[in-house]
Amino acid sequence: MPKVDPMMGDAIMSTIAVDVGGTFTDAIYIDDEGKLRVTKVPTTTLNPALGVIDSIKKSKGLNEVEEVLHATTIATNSILGQINLELPRVALITTKGFRDIIEIGRQNRPKLYDAFFTKPRPFVPRELRYEVNERTTYEGKVLKGIDEDEINDIANDMVEKGIVSIAVSFLNSYANNENERRTKELLQDHFSFITISSDVSPEPREYERTSTAIINALLQPIVSSYISSLTSSLSGLRSPRFSIMSSAGGLINPEEAIERPVQLIESGPAAGAIAALELSKLLGIKNVIGFDMGGTTAKASSIINNEIEIVDEYEVGGESHHGRIAKGSGYPIRFPFIDLAEVSAGGGTIIWRDKAGGLNVGPISVGAEPGPASYGRGGDKPTITDANLAIGRLGGNLAGGQIKLRKGLAISALKVLGEPTEVSLQALELINLEMARAVRLVTVERGLDPSLFTIMAFGGAGPMHATYLAEEIGVKSIVIPPEPGLFSALGLLLADSKFEARKAFPRDLEQAFSELEAKLREKLGDIDEFLRYVDVRYEGQGYELRLQVTSLDRHEIEKEFEELHKRTYGFTLSIPIEVVSARVFAIKKRKKVGLGEAREDGVKSPSGYREAIIRDHWEEVPIYRREGYLKDSQLKVQRL
User: Fold this and answer.
1) How far is the C-alpha of 388 from the C-alpha of 375, rounded, in Å?
2) Which residues pair with 42 in a beta bridge?
3) How far apart are CA 287 and CA 473, in angstroms?
4) Residue 165: beta bridge partners?
5) pTM
6) Domains in the chain, start-ordered, CATH in brackets?
7) CA count, 13 A, side-chain hemisphere, 592
8) Per residue in 299-343, pLDDT tens?
């Protein structure tokens, strides 16, 4: 196991990172001797906090914990109904005449020719949507303020109906949130959880802003309870500091997570993408495809010129079609997310035959319990793990020997579908094609040539499928990072703290940036770096393109926008541009674990041999231990 630099600070030595995946919960830390230590336990899907605490308790050699870094699935799984809790009763207060906006939504039809398609059920039923006689213009002028007696009457009615959390979304509040602010002040006497839309999504597009506010209100009590439970359980470990990975790829504090939990939707996958970004910088590789294949899903992200791609909208709970979320099938959220394509393709993905006898893989996974048939925990459904084991591509152990795989059970499960070897090869080919589609979504469909990228493969199953994926999409180089099965957890140790603020339609760009930065300083204290962005479009366009601001010169912004528009859409227009929003990310840099240097140390003898199908026939394949090829591999801290 690699050792750290003896000059490493206590901040790293006493930090543990825990990532909750669909199948395993991973913990990674540096022990008192400076060695990297890892722990893998099954994810407790119905109560994920139990798995987090279990992973920390089982982390041998850890005497004291002063900081816990966490990537969680609590937000997504709550909305998808995958954990054992009842969703809180949420109410919506909105402008008179607009209470049905969350049902009207957009005219997107994810299934164009499905006459029986129904939109997602609103989280707030119509009887819990309250209308207020207020009005603000699109320019921010308040035509009619709120009636305090009306708000108090609504509050009393909500108390009687057992409302736990409230979303407030008024028309044009992104231009002036005076009415939303006053409504929140009045409601605070009655309720602990109140979300106003201008706090979570201060942007135009009424439907998306209202949906974001409702999802935030839904998650606030859940995330608050989860964090409270975790911190209470961790109090026996010296009351550690606690940070959580956001969907934008930065660590946030518990207060920010509770205030705006919508940013935790893609917490876990974001940690893996950040790990790929940081390692690509260390290796001097500019263009990388992050390929994360775990037990339940496979995720692809793209890193271009050592910059990770960020998008502004995500549909939680939506239907995925070959890695692409079908617009209109879920609940839209307007918040920064790392651009990820995700498919139901993992080690636990079930192999099955349809009524016509055709072989299929997914989208259902067996999860951590009972797991694949080869786990010997009572599962009888054949999975991708069983297929890899049956043809020798996978050995007899997983999770560092914590899980013993039984080849006989795998073959028995596969026999139900046909000849085990043939079924395994067909299933693996199908799942590789499915994952290739996800990679094309973040490359080819963005106008990028995959052959110019390097695949960085991680997750428990990623390295095993990387070569087949590279052949399919034309990639010529692959990087397998250290501890690939726990790489997302390692990403937490490589991440900075990152907080976001934005302002719609700024009249004075310099003033807007100054106000946003002052707001973040007041909230967070010392900031190491601010990153400025603008969302720009031609006047009259429906959607925007994002630019990082290096100069406030209007002509420079116009030039950069037109170049980006040309690259994205293939044309430009002779129309004035407008800045739809100004956005600032505040970065608080942290001491990080460095991955040091690893040098090849001569040719080693194989540690053993195993029969496996590599192409289309069985071969006696030599097995090499990775650590046997590393010399002076050290983890080091980056002094900031």
Assistant:
1) 13
2) 24
3) 15
4) 90, 193
5) 0.85
6) 90-224 (no CATH), 498-589 (3.30.1490), 603-638 (no CATH)
7) 23
8) 888 899 988 888 888 887 666 655 566 666 678 899 988 888 888
Q: Residue 340 to residues 76, 343, 461: CA-CA distances in angstroms?
A: 15, 10, 18
Confirm if 373 and 386 have CB atoms less than 8 A apart: yes
Render pLDDT for 214-235 as a digit per residue (tens, 0 to 9).
999 999 999 998 888 887 777 6
CB 179 within 8 A of CB 145: yes
pLDDT at 551: 86
pLDDT band, residue 237 (cuts 50/70/90): low
Could you write out the DSSP letters of every residue in 352-397?
A: EE-TT--EEEEEEE-TTTT--GGG-SS--S-BHHHHHHHTTSS-SE
Rounded to 5 degrees, what are φ and ψ at 521? -65, -40
CB 547 within 8 A of CB 560: yes
Convert the pLDDT of each residue in 625-635 to its tens digit. 776 655 444 44
Enclosing H/E stretch for 304: strand 298-304
Q: What's the rounded Cα separation, in Å, for the pair 197 and 174?
A: 8
- How distant, in Å, are the alpha carbons of 200, 206, 402 from that of 197? 5, 10, 46
Place of tokens 């002779």: 574
The full DSSP string for 107-174 is ---SSTT-TT--PPPPSS-GGGEEEE--EE-TTS-EEE---HHHHHHHHHHHHHTT--EEEEE-TTTT
> Which structure tokens are listed for 110?
């994810």
pLDDT band (50, 70, 90) for residue 267? confident
